[in-house]
Amino acid sequence: MLNRQLCSSKVAHTTKRHLSLHEYRSAQLLDRYGVGVPKGFPAFTPEEAENAAKAVGKEDMVIKAQVLAGGRGKGVFDTGLKGGVKLIGSPYEAKLYAEQMLGHKLITKQTGPQGKPCTGVYIVEREFVRREAYIAILMDRTNQCPMIVASSEGGMDIEGVAAEHPDAIHQTPIPLATGVTDEIANTIAGQLGFSIQAQPAAAQAIKDLYKLFQDKDCTQVEINPLSETTDHRVVAMDAKLGFDDNAAFRQEEIFSWRDLSQEDADEIEAARDGLNFIKLDGTIGCLVNGAGLAMATMDIIKLYGGDPANFLDCGGGATIDAIRHALQLITSERQVTGIFVNIFGGIVRCDIIAKGLISVAQSMDINVPIVARLQGTNVEEAHRLISDSGLKIFSFTDLDDAAQKVCQLSKVVSMAREIDVNVSFELPL
Ligand code: GDP
Ligand code: MN
């Protein structure tokens, strides 16, 4: 069970199955729902940035890199420029920073070392803040209802707060039947650490955020910081909103705001071919049919001490094209040192899959071991085809045996690579 949770949470973390919006789009939505946001305009060229700053019309402003990742404030650009959030004092400065941000990659603790491209900047008026709080609305699987997470210790490092001062983080499950009542709103408002004057506005903001969460099929609404200004207004200074992809059909406007430049090119490509492909950081590439079996496959890999390199569900059909594309995706990752094909031949017969696998493997230059576990209709014929093919594909019917084998082989190849020894698993033998 623990393994399942491990894998599942990892997928949830890396997945792009929840649409994320840029901050400036999120701010527009929050504004529509009556939540206070700083006045601001997006810009996609340095000239636009200068004009955006003029339109903001204040002396004190902030320029913010529009990159779909948290931790921008503490991020670093690949050019060396420190910080994806900068205080500025003039339209000229907006232009200067925009020149240094646009077209470059921002690396934050959420982007990984390769960073994410900055395709836009957001110029906002600067707020003068007396307190920074944290608030998020998420789906809580355990209680099967939304949950509001609130803390008075908002700002840049909520992960640090969660690790060091877990008491400072309050969690409130929201009953679906009642939603956020006045009582719940007031209690959570009290947890934010704002002054008495700001409490009513905070309670209202919590209700507005919850309404947005429900109306727009959000999977996440995270405001960090939700700030109290020196004149006691409550303002969402940053917003990270996520939306359930299954709701795309009824949230057309929101889904039209998707920015593909922020997503992994391989994953987009895979989705086009009907593959559900999500990169992970392990070493064992997985090719599986069915999402449930794909999850179980990752779990059993973990159970035998391995680490999956990806989640991949190639759909019920498992056609030759799907298998080819899947193997291309898997083998394009350098860290992959073993491939686990786990296919249940129900809709499609095992011998057909085996033929597909053999023909693809023959045409590709694969130099890591492949372990194939086929089960289902015509499984004997499938194993005969694989052993007659002369290819070095390890063929199993038992899931445990297959998983153990692939973990073992992958470990050997990884170790060999580390000490620069060439273990040949080239196909054919
Ligand atoms: P993140 O690092 O990606 O979460 O980006 P944020 O939008 O949260 O910006 C980083 C930090 O900059 C915030 O946590 C604030 O502390 C600070 N910040 C951003 N805008 C303002 C502003 O208008 N006034 C003040 N005082 N701080 C700001
Ligand atoms: Mn933030």
TrEMBL record:
Boundaries of every ATP-grasp fold succinyl-CoA synthetase-type domain copy: 21-227
Domain ATP-citrate synthase/succinyl-CoA ligase C-terminal: from-to ranges: 287-406
Any one cellular-component term (Gene Ontology): mitochondrion
Catalysed reaction, written as an equation: succinate + ATP + CoA = succinyl-CoA + ADP + phosphate
Cofactor binding notes: Binds 1 Mg(2+) ion per subunit.
Cofactor annotation: Mg(2+)
Annotated Mg(2+) binding sites: 224, 238
Residues annotated to bind ATP: 64, 71-73, 132
UniProt-annotated binding residues for substrate: 289, 346-348
Enzyme class: ligase
UniProt GO MF annotations: ATP binding; magnesium ion binding; succinate-CoA ligase (ADP-forming) activity
UniProt entry keywords in alphabetical sequence: ATP-binding, Ligase, Magnesium, Metal-binding, Mitochondrion, Nucleotide-binding, Transit peptide, Tricarboxylic acid cycle
Function comment: Succinyl-CoA synthetase functions in the citric acid cycle (TCA), coupling the hydrolysis of succinyl-CoA to the synthesis of ATP and thus represents the only step of substrate-level phosphorylation in the TCA. The beta subunit provides nucleotide specificity of the enzyme and binds the substrate succinate, while the binding sites for coenzyme A and phosphate are found in the alpha subunit.
Description of how the protein assembles with itself and partners: Heterodimer of an alpha and a beta subunit. The beta subunit determines specificity for GTP.
Descriptive protein name: Succinate--CoA ligase [ADP-forming] subunit beta, mitochondrial
Organism annotation: Tortispora caseinolytica NRRL Y-17796
